[in-house]
Amino acid sequence: MQQRIGHLVPSTSVGVERWVAQICKPLAIEVSHPIARASLPEVMSGPAIAPSQSGELTRAAAQLADAGVGAVVWGGSSSDLHGAAHGRAMARWVEEVTGVRASTVTLGQIDLLSRRDLVSIALVSAGNEQTAGRVADTYLAAGFKIASVTALGLATAREAAELPVSRMRRVLKEADSLDAQCIVVAGTELPVAPVAALAERELGKPVYDGARVAVRTGLDLLGLSVTAPEWGEMFGARKPAGVCCDTH
């Protein structure tokens, strides 16, 4: 029986769908990944779900429900910027609409780091220093240590998505810190996926970015696993995670 993971993304996002089919190719016969776009900003206006946003969120989530998904992942950056509590609110809203388990990239990221006992992170953000600082605050509030922060100062999701892969590799190397146990790249747009495995070998530590985390979180919600080490450490383990929105 084919299982479906729904990815709910802001209208400007391109990162998740660039990689989801390629990463999950080993399960292509069993798993499909519909994408629902919501006419919502990449960054929502605040930690609460505003009335002006709830209707559009409901519409997009209902599209995924109609597609018969078994789990939904919210791929917007708002959870990074407004904290885990906002992520839980987003996930519960989607669960009420769709009737299936839901999570967010941020909650999935926190879960992956916690299960691997990774406490100290080198953080990379596509945005400016202010945005990077807000993302850092989210991880600090969740109990992590920030070894370093790199802000690329890119203005739009398109700029981030079109960053040359060769430069992305250099960014990961330059962002590393001796105190960091891993590299965390906020958001889903930067093209980390094609260089993640190589960077991990070069740095000797794992690299996590939002696009691949979105895929892994959806698989974990369904209890599925992809063994595809060419896409990095997070696709080398077979044991599924617990990423319920109430656990963080």
Automatic annotation (TrEMBL):
<dbReference type="Pfam" id="PF17645">
    <property type="entry name" value="Amdase"/>
</dbReference>
<dbReference type="InterPro" id="IPR026286">
    <property type="entry name" value="MaiA/AMDase"/>
</dbReference>
<dbReference type="InterPro" id="IPR053714">
    <property type="entry name" value="Iso_Racemase_Enz_sf"/>
</dbReference>
<protein>
    <recommendedName>
        <fullName>Asp/Glu/hydantoin racemase</fullName>
    </recommendedName>
</protein>
